[in-house]
Amino acid sequence: MGASYIYDAVRTPFGRIGKSLAGVRPDDLAASTLQALVARHPELDPADIDDVFLGAANQAGEDNRNVARMAAILAGWPTSVPGATVNRLCGSSVEAVIQASRAVETGDADLIVAGGVESMSRAPWVLSKPSRPYPVGNETLHSTTLGWRLVNPRMPKQWTIPLGESAEILADRYGITREEQDAFAVRSHRTAAAAWDAGVYDGEIVAVPGVELDRDENLRADASLESLAPLKPSFRPDGTVTAGNASPLTDGASALIIGGEGALGDTEPLARITGRAAHGNDPDVFGIAPVEAANRALARAGRTWADVDVVELNEAFASQSLACLKLWPDLDPERVNIHGGAIAIGHPLGASGGRIIGHAAHELARRGGGVAVAAICIGVGQGLAVVLER
Question: Within a 10 A sphere around the Cβ of 151, how many other Cβ atoms?
């Protein structure tokens, strides 16, 4: 077995649903991100890319029919460059990176571009096809933006609850208050804003052609406990989960170059991928699945939490993230999402994993070394984690 490295990682600014990126098709959004990634490396001939793995959670609209292949073609790459689209819902681009690293380590590929894309703005409504030619009665349109749709009646009802209700369950189970969730959200916004102001994100952001957006659109530098306090609960009348302490619906794309040693000439890798793991649990508490996924990934890397310098934990909900932190007693919370998280930055489902892995890799390069963990929760009760070292 060989080793797999991250040579570069980029992402678009994440746009709020219905706003700046709403006019961009997801296949075009992915294509422009692939183009921008390769443009940073004049020595890289796209014809040398062995494969493209992109994650996409929806795949019900313009991202259908293998958006990875479509994006590579739209990027102007040779038709000899294949592409595959993977779907593990919120963890889709983590899955893409994992599959890319495995292919490199086993010798099936030398150089792969992995990442993901999601346009939650352009996710369509879908209509079930009738089982008979001339049905009697009305049919229902289902939104594909987020969450369950066209649910199999055999699925236990307690597992098909809204994602926000699951966040409420975790808040109850782990004694997480509304004030704690709001404080976590405020930290996300403020640390993200400070990172942007300090130029931390400058080296990993690529523009979307024709769109004037140079910073994550959901970011609120002036977020405060006072500004979040008036927001009403979104899922329970007496609940604690609000639009302010949950990740917003967003659009965006991410892309990384994954390769073996020396795969990009003299370019020094950002980090090496040393551990990977997936874990599943009951769907109604999906938010804590990253806990065991990260524990297993660290064990496979031969590391413990004491070795970890930085953690990128995708913030689906503040209560979900805080529950994970409670279940990682050996992890210093100050090492988690030091430059903000999805509550401030956004969570375009298929692209988020590429964002957290890419940012962790760039952070290790900034530090000149260390160990990082990137972990993400996934609807229907799954978690993924990747360990990086430099």
Answer: 12
Q: What's the number of CA atoms in the CB half-sphere (13 Å) around residue 45?
A: 4
Predicted confidence band of residue 275 (pLDDT cuts 50, 70, 90): very high
Which tokens belong to 196? Answer: 């942007």
pLDDT tens profile 45-66: 999 999 999 999 999 999 999 9
Q: Which of 90, 279, 324, 359 is catalytic?
A: 90
- In the chain, what is the straight-line distance between the N-terminal and C-terminal CA atoms, in Å? 19
Residue 64 burial by Cβ neighbours in a 10 Å radius (0-12, 13-18, 19+): middle
pLDDT digits (tens, 9 = 90+) for 217-270: 999 999 999 999 999 999 999 999 999 999 999 999 999 999 999 999 999 999
14 in Cβ contact with 213 (< 8 Å): no
Rg, the chain, Cα only:
20
Q: Among 54, 20, 8, 6, which Cα is nearest to 346's? A: 20
324 is catalytic: no
The alpha carbon of residue 74 and the mean position of all alpha carbons in its chain are separated, in whole angstroms, by: 23
**Residue 359 a catalytic site member:** no
Annotated catalytic residue 347 = yes
Strand segments, DSSP code E, in the chain are 4-11, 15-16, 51-55, 83-86, 111-119, 125-127, 141-143, 250-259, 271-280, 310-313, 371-378, 382-389
Using CB atoms within 10 Å of the CB of residue 23, give its burial: 0 to 12 exposed, 13 to 18 middle, 19+ buried. middle
Among residues 268, 254, 361, 247, the alpha carbon closest in space to that of 310 is found at: 361
> Which domains are assigned to the chain?
4-123+247-389 (3.40.47.10)
Q: Of residues 279, 347, 359, 362, which has the active-site annotation?
A: 347
Residues 6+ apart with CB under 8 A from 389: 271, 272, 274, 301, 364, 370, 371, 372
